[in-house]
Design goal:
The chain contains four helices and no strands. The protein is mostly helical. The chain starts with a helix and ends with a helix.
């Protein structure tokens, strides 16, 4: 759940920054939207967001609460 949220937030940040976004899923889906540089940046944003949440003092509380969603 938290990884999925990190992934989606990374898409949102890229969309605000560039007006477009891309990730490895575009490559897998072969939908014509794959952009290597955007996908690389997307991965970095996703990891940074995930680490922010993971390193939060409230992580274990969030994990328990979100596990049931
Ligand atoms: Zn994606």
């Amino acid at each position: 759940m938290i990884k999925t949220c990190s992934h989606e937030l990374a898409h949102y940040i890229q969309f605000v920054k560039w007006g477009e976004n891309s990730c490895e899923s575009d490559l897998v889906l072969n939908n014509g939207n794959y952009d290597r540089e955007l996908a690389k940046e997307h991965e970095e944003f996703m990891q940074e967001i995930y680490q922010l949440i993971r390193n939060s003092g409230d992580y274990s509380k969030l994990e328990k609460r979100w596990k049931n969603i």
